[in-house]
Every structure is written in C-alpha cells, then in structure tokens.
User: Fold this.
Amino acid sequence: MSHLVVLQHLEREGPGRFGEEARRRGWDVTVCRPDRGEPMPRLGPGQALLVLGGPMGVGDIGSPSFPWLEAEVALLRECLECERPVVGLCLGAQLLAFAAGGQVVPLTAGDPPVRAYEVGWEPVAWTRPEDQEPVLAGLGAALPALHWHGDRIRLPAAAVLLGSTPLCTEQMFRIGHHAHGLQFHVEVTDAALETWLEEDGDYVRLALGPDGVEQLRAGRERWGEEGERQGRRLINNLLDRIGALLGGYPLL
Assistant:
C-alpha cells in the first residue's frame, strides 16, 4: 500500500485536498509536526513525502526559532539523492529547490523593483505541453490557483519549469521524474481558507490593502469552484505519478 508522509509546519496549513484524494485511493496518510518537536520521519519502501507551507522561510534556516528546518532540508536532499517521490507546496517547494541547489529571494516587481507579494487568485499558465508532462494532463492552458507568498524561487540547474504567473515566474517545477514543487496552493479547502483569512488577515492586508480579505473572498466566489476542480485533477495527476514510482511501474 502507498503511504503519504506529510510534513506540516503550522496548525492551519494541513494536507487538505491532498490528504482527501490520497485517502480516497486507500493510501495511508501520516502527518509529522516538526514544529511541535516531533522527529523527522525515516522513510522506507512505499512511502512518498509531501511538504506543506508555512510563514517561515529558507532565510530562517539556522534560526533557533525553527531548529527543524535544517533537518528538513537534509531529508529533502536524501529524497532527491535516492529518487523518492516528493511534492513540495509553497514553503515546501522553496525548501525542495534550496535542497537541490536553488535559491529563494524576496519577490519584487516594477522598474525600479519594489517589494511585492502574490496573494489571491491568479491563473498559473503552463510552460510545457501536457504530452511531455503527464502531471499536466487534462488541465488545459492554465489553472486558477490561490497564491499566498512574498518570495521567489531561483530554480536549480536540475529543475524544469512547468508553470508561471506574470508576477512570479517559478510557480511549478520538477526535478527528475520524482520531485515536484508548487509555489501555489491547490490543497486548501474552503473551510481552511476561511481560517487563513481569520488568522493571517494582517498579511493579506499588507499584500492587497485594507480590503484584502474581502478581495480574496470575492476571488473565491469567482475562481474557487474551477480552482478546486482543476486543483484536484492536478493533485490526482501527481498522485498517479507517485503511485507509479512507488509501485515500480514504467513511467509514461
């Protein structure tokens, strides 16, 4: 049986739709909380890794506030070296890129560049055709996605860019055939999003202005249904890939 091991860094940021879809397949889903002092998992046969988001970042590696970040990067490097299936979401994608030799820098926009934040709904446009990238199958030209970040990934040489937005080029990438990073959020349920808006509203208002929370709710009304439909398709494409890798099946 396939087993998805989840690294969660904050109470409100759980596996959400990723966990739902994995369990629907009959997979085991185990959540590890390094932020609560739980040890890093020791991964074995049949196990894949899902790394979630959080307000901390690559710049916090070495900080006494987040002593587990170094161990998490070490685990990601181990997964890359042994070609274990990995998916990183937001912070998880940044840590995955960093583990592979990439960088994470503050997001900027304009000329001259100023600090920027990408928060809200924006379509991610695919940069590769789906006949070359099975994880993009059935997704059309773009996916309306929820964004919630203020950093930008500088991809390592080994990475292949799969998706972009106008503000932030590095939205989705893969390393080899086993590791995928998503800067955006497909896992967040409507209930979880409401918790994010309640608990992290100041960050939303910093990014979007005083009515930022209302903007996100309006965006959910416009994009949420399609975002969920396509987001679940992308999640299942990724789980198909993980399942093939764990089962030893030939990859298309």
